[in-house]
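Listing S7. Sequence submitted for prediction.
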Amino acid sequence: MLDADSGIAVGSVPQPQDTHRVALAPELGRGFTSNGGADSVTIFDLKTLQPIGTVKVPGKKPDYIVYESSSQMVFTMNSRSRS
């Protein structure tokens, strides 16, 4: 993670192999990574950058991830299963 103003590294989120993208939900204090190699999403705390949990996706190889704030839902787009 980088500080947006200075560009200085301020920390990192421990991740499984083959992490592709990150989605942020600042109003929830959470971040989410798509882990293509593990067919999962990791949920992490935005303040501590520590993982909170991991969720298996109902598809294969999540490449893209997005947080939609009005519904407070996270969506992955899975390349191998095309879902």
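Caption to Listing S7: primary sequence and predicted structure tokens for the chain studied. The two ends are 29 Å apart (CA to CA). Residues 3 and 16 are 23 Å apart (CA to CA).
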